[in-house]
Amino acid sequence: MIKGIKICGVSDPETLEFIINHPNPPNYIGFITNYEKSKRFVDYDKLKLLLNIRKKNINFVSVMVKPSNEFLQKIKNLNFDYYQLYDVDPERTKYIKENNKIKIISALTINSKKDIDKYKDYLKISEIILFDGKGYEKSIGFDHNLLNELPMTFNKMIAGNIKIEDILKFKNKDFIIDISGSLENNEGKKDIKKINNLLNLIKEI
Q1: Which of 32, 67, 200, 204 has the fewest C-beta atoms under 10 angstroms from its C-beta?
Q2: Domain limits of the chain?
Q3: Looking at residue 106, what is its pLDDT?
Q4: Spelled out in words, what is the top-level CATH class assigned to the domain 4-204?
Q5: Where are the alpha helices (H) located in the chain, listed in sequence order?
């Protein structure tokens, strides 16, 4: 069965408060913290204000692409439970984890089976392995069937242009579902109605 839900790309206080206070909240909320190309990017000053909230039992995730030591030092005392790292090799990941005393989601971008096999290099240093499309700031999918043969011995998160209507396809999989773009309106802002529909659906299944 689905092991959890992450809503990613939250960038405004109204949406954040709605999610946190929802009767069926997600397990994780992601914030784009150092990737300015993304329309979901939250700059540091806004981030400090946004995270100054009682998050209850939800895990806050800082989503980063190749973060520098300077940036990691800057956010070290913010209200994060996990760092989600893109384009960070295993050795650097281990350094970030140990130096910041933080849980790690290692994000692998997938185009073929060969990309999936890289997860083995991150197993000992990551609490969760995320399998995502190669779109970064764009919601680009990949063939999720490539993950069918993965063992159940580690925590797997799956992203890649997942729609709300796709969720039922994963109900018998041991994945944490990471969803972002399909929760937005035509202007690219998070849509409260869509978030509500998602969280109520998860409760049902």
Answers
A1: 204
A2: 4-204
A3: 98
A4: alpha beta
A5: 13-20, 44-50, 69-75, 90-100, 113-116, 192-204
Closest CA to 148 of 177, 121, 118, 113: 113
CB atoms within 10 A of CB 177: 24
Task: For strands 4-8 and 103-109, give the pairing.
Answer: unpaired
Q: What is the pTM of this model?
A: 0.94
Residues in the chain: 205
d(CA 75, CA 145) in angstroms, rounded, equals 36
Distance CA 148, CA 113 (A): 11
What's the mean pLDDT in 93-121?
Answer: 95
Which DSSP letter does residue 146 get? G
For residue 96 the two structure tokens come to 């970030």
Cβ-contact 160, 144 below 8 angstroms: yes
d(CA 85, CA 167): 24
Phi and psi for 98 in degrees, rounded to 5?
-75, -40
